[in-house]
Design brief:
NADP (chains A, B), about 450 residues, Rossmann fold, 17 strands, NAD(P)-bd_dom_sf (chains A, B), Alpha-Beta Plaits, elongated
Chain lengths: ~450, ~450
């Protein structure tokens, strides 16, 4: 059997402690599978004295991650600290700079510095593995980086934030408000005390930027993502969607178009009978559409200490199975010098169907006016629904829901602006994009 | 850049021709991704003169696969001939015996000889990759063999035969009979002229036997699979299932139980709202339940020249990215000597819910008798439905449908036999097992 693979772990939170426990408990089985033992030789974390329920006595303790990365006797540096900046950034750089492989679950770090780190990895013959950074336990990085080699990818999209999916699922199933479901998510530990990063879509955007680079062979462009969170979604939208045969999900979508690459994170209507519409609660899902393989959808746990640890372990095992210096797996699918510049498509040129919910004064001619504004912008309608609570005209505001055939964001924005200027709207219109899976 | 990876392809049918075309058209892009070119240096097929729409002039033609495997100047032997026996078997053995890696899409070969071939691969330091052999383009082999390293797997199940799923989907959507849908599948090329291998479940069984070995680390036991096809499923079953909140799918299921491993292929009721229930038409899906990661479900194309070629290409690219002699990836997840013996659980001890449809004479006391026979076998019922076409007793046979809570196959068989002996049954009872995904 080959020499043991020596790993150092930086960060002993939920994921780190799970990983230590699993590596210890399954030492023999892993050695059999990998053809060599995996030994944790060094660890670091914020607090040396905290009881994590695991035995660290056989490992060298480092007071900081940089010292571990720079000096420990390790083959792999496992970064589980999180955060786009220090101390993770310098520690990962230090490890790669001396040819030590890096396994990380840190999406923020990769979204901000992924290409620079990939370059460093290539330069020093090290691997940079990060399966756990996107959609937790779902092996989407491996699918894009390995299984789909040779495919040209047209679209990647998915449910990549469990907090948002939990809230949207609960709103629909129990008829509760966004606020009530957010509170419940916080109570269960599915949402942070400050939930903005999840519910405004930033977390999904970080993950999407990594998938975009892998899928299209471009530089990471985490700042060029169109972003809408779910705070604006009401139970009325969810009910209206269901009536029309749709369900609302927060999707991250990266798509190749004639004018560049679209990266969008926003509430999205997906057909009720589609597979992804059935993905409930904190579960994640990622779909990849490619020209040779076709459509691949993967569904699984997107977060949690164990699921994340499993993905990290898979990355470590891949290194253990390869012999040192023996592999060529560029971090983002192709060498950094072969990555293409990222050309952003403007959201205005986005093409697709739209759901538009309008609250209007109950006046003669409103319907005709709306239809005219749509026609003027060459928007054809799949359906128009008026939900009236009152059988006869009462002067109370009415809700009108439009579902458009494929059109452009620009046309929709113009039509909605024109409708707004007519003076019969009550409150703001709600506009939700529709996304259709390629197959069923 | 490293030396080119030289491959020989045996079999130039739909998949083989797709593969040649893709390797030629995407030569540069693949070289960038893999860090070395992939060159087809040798080919063989049944008919040298057939026009396959691809240029074979740069390759050495071999009249038979064995000569190619034994003598060609290749690093990888790609076996796309199919069939459990010759000429595939000897050719693959010959390639492995001289340390040439093998990539194959041949499920029948692996089901029959997988472990022997894996042993040969290990002995000679070669890789045996077979992503395309199970569920076509879905990277389930990679997920089990790599991503889930360290996990203990409890159940693997899935829709692995597109023909059956197409027929069942069409029956439900269009209210047609099994025979009518089979004919349509044959017309569209989704079913063979002799469809028995697909519709009787044998194809699914081959694939399941490979997944079982990978999932549980056991020897392949393709002959120890409980098998029921879909020929017995009527449109009445499908409607009754829908009424009760279920959909019928042909599943292959491998499950660890206290008494051994269950391998079963049979029509299965899955909850309508589950993700796998939404997998329609020729699409495949495989779910893996494991202790660290949780549940992972993958959905994608299970057959077709391109999807299969994509999986084969992924396997070739994995070899191209590794340097010769530099990897340790046992074909079935652990070295052949570390594989456990397969211990078969008897179908009689299977535990789960059951759907039972009985056609009975319209006599007083029948309902009570059925309920009594169930109770005598300690079977508790989730629901009982009587579908009567007639509002009053007419003497016409009635249909009674039972859905049980979790019970054993043995109890159900005893109860059904007891009911049969009562003399009020018309025709044979229909019994369909219920399978529940772990999550939602």
């Amino acid at each position: 059997m080959a020499d043991a693979l020596k790993i150092g772990i930086a960060g002993l939170g939920t994921v780190g402690a799970s990983l230590v426990r699993i590596l210890q408990e399954r030492h023999e089985a892993l050695a059999t599978t990998c053809g060599r033992a995996i030994e944790i030789t060094a660890v670091t974390a914020r607090d040396r004295n905290r009881d994590r329920g695991v035995d660290l006595s056989a490992m060298t303790w480092h007071d900081d991650a940089l010292s571990l990365a720079e000096t420990a006797d390790i083959d792999v540096f496992v970064e589980l600290m999180g955060g786009a900046g220090e101390p993770a950034l310098s520690a990962v750089k230090a490890a790669l700079s001396r040819g030590v492989h890096v396994v990380t679950a840190n999406k923020a770090l990769l979204a901000a510095h992924g290409i620079a780190l990939a370059g460093l990895a290539e330069e020093h013959g090290a691997l940079l593995n990060y399966e756990a950074a996107v959609a937790g336990g779902i092996p989407v990085i491996k699918a894009l980086r390995e299984s789909l080699t040779g495919n040209t990818i047209s679209r990647v999209y998915g449910i990549m934030n469990g907090t948002c999916n939990y809230i949207l699922t609960k709103m629909e199933k129990e008829g509760l408000s966004f606020e009530a479901c957010l509170k419940e998510a916080q109570r269960l530990g599915y949402a942070e005390a400050d939930p903005a990063f999840d519910i405004e879509g930033n977390d999904t955007a970080h993950k999407l930027s990594i998938l975009t680079s892998l899928a299209f062979g471009t530089a990471i462009a985490a700042d060029d993502i169109y972003l809408e969170g779910i705070t604006n979604i009401s139970i009325d939208d969810i009910h209206a969607a269901a009536d029309l045969g749709y369900r609302i999900k927060l999707l991250g979508v990266a798509q190749r178009t004639d004018s560049g690459i679209e990266q969008r994170v926003h509430p999205t209507m997906v057909p009720l009978e589609s597979v992804i519409a059935q993905v409930d609660g904190v579960t994640n899902a990622v779909a990849i559409e490619s020209d040779i393989l076709g459509e691949l959808l993967m569904v699984g746990p997107g977060a949690g200490g164990n699921a994340t640890a499993s993905a990290v372990l898979g990355d470590i095992a891949d290194i253990a199975k390869s012999r040192p210096g023996a592999q060529h797996v560029p971090a983002f699918g192709r060498p950094v010098t072969a990555l293409l510049p990222y050309k952003q498509a403007q959201i205005q040129s986005h093409e697709g169907g739209y759901f538009i919910r309008l609250k209007v004064l109950d006046k003669t001619g409103v319907f005709a006016s709306i239809a005219t504004r749509m026609a003027e912008n060459r928007i054809s309608l799949e359906s128009i629904v008026q939900h009236s609570k009152h059988p006869v005209e009462t002067g109370e505001p009415q809700t009108i829901i439009l579902v458009t055939h494929a059109t452009t964001e620009e046309s929709v924005r113009k039509a909605v602006a024109a409708i707004k200027s007519e003076g019969y709207l009550v409150g703001d219109p709600q506009v939700i994009r529709i996304e259709r899976p390629k197959t069923a």
